[in-house]
């Protein structure tokens, strides 16, 4: 586990709040292509990845909901602890998607062949709603569109039914 102090900053061109990861920490991690568990102020842990910030530094996005949970605001200093995320997809898989992939062998085969980023996109999109029926509907739509797409040429737009 790597611990450090940082400040909550903002990328104006993306309107995104973030936690800066110093070059020394990036060097210690050995790569930016890594999924991590980020714990802020010893109280809130979430899964994340690093984005390049320039000069060897990186950042981790932090949304308004997490900032509210932590009781912090822009420019506050926080303590961050990072450790490698050993989970299969780098984020929790919704029960509805997990069950669908157990039952749909072709859907599971195609899902397993996707890049990790595309897999996480599907998981994130399905997780994006609270209603279990809506999560199931999203999972079915994405997996059905995945099976209809040309293998190796899948796009987010096609999976969403926009092509």
Tally of individual domains: 2
Mean pLDDT, all residues: 94
- Annotation, overall tally of beta strands: 7
Fraction in helix: 25-40%
Question: What sequence of helices (H) and strands (E) makes up the elements?
Answer: EEHEEEEHEHHHHH
Count of DSSP helices?
A: 7
CATH class of the largest domain equals: Mainly Beta
* Overall 3D form: elongated
The structural class is: alpha+beta
Gyration radius (Cα, Å) is: 18 Å
- Poorly predicted runs are none
Main pleated-sheet profile: 7 strands, antiparallel
Strand order of the largest sheet: 4-3-7-1-2-6-5
Q: What CATH architecture of the largest domain do you see?
A: Beta Barrel
In CATH terms, the superfamily of the largest domain is AF2212/PG0164-like
Pfam families: DUF1905, OmdA
Protein name: DUF1905 domain-containing protein
Organism: Fulvivirga imtechensis AK7
Describe the structure.
The protein has two domains: 2-84, Elongation Factor Tu (Ef-tu), domain 3; 95-159, no CATH class. Helix 5 packs antiparallel against helix 6 (132-148). The protein is an alpha+beta fold and 163 residues long. It has helices spanning 23-29, 64-70, 95-103, 105-113, 116-127, 132-148, 156-159; strands spanning 2-11, 16-21, 35-40, 44-49, 51-54, 57-61, 77-84. It has a seven-stranded antiparallel β-sheet with strand order 4-3-7-1-2-6-5. It is 40% helix and 28% strand. The chain is elongated.
Short description:
With 163 residues, this protein is α+β, with helices and mostly antiparallel strands. It contains seven helices and seven strands, in the order ββαββββαβααααα. It has helices at 23-29, 64-70, 95-103, 105-113, 116-127, 132-148, 156-159, and strands at 2-11, 16-21, 35-40, 44-49, 51-54, 57-61, 77-84.
């Amino acid at each position: 586990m790597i611990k450090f102090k940082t400040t909550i900053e903002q990328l104006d061109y993306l309107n995104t709040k973030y936690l800066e990861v110093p070059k020394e920490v990036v060097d210690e991690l050995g790569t930016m292509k890594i999924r991590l568990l980020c714990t802020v102020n010893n109280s809130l842990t979430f899964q994340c990845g690093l984005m390049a910030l320039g000069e060897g530094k990186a950042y981790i996005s932090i949304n308004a909901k997490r900032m509210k949970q932590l009781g912090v605001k822009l420019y506050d200093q926080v303590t961050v602890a990072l450790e490698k995320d050993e989970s299969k997809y780098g984020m929790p898989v919704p029960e509805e998607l997990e069950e669908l992939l157990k039952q749909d062998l072709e859907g599971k085969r195609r899902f397993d062949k996707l890049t990790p980023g595309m897999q996480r996109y599907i998981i994130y999109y399905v997780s994006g709603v609270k209603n279990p029926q809506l999560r199931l509907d999203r999972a079915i739509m994405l997996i059905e569109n995945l099976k209809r797409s040309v293998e190796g040429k899948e796009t987010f737009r096609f999976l969403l039914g926009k092509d």
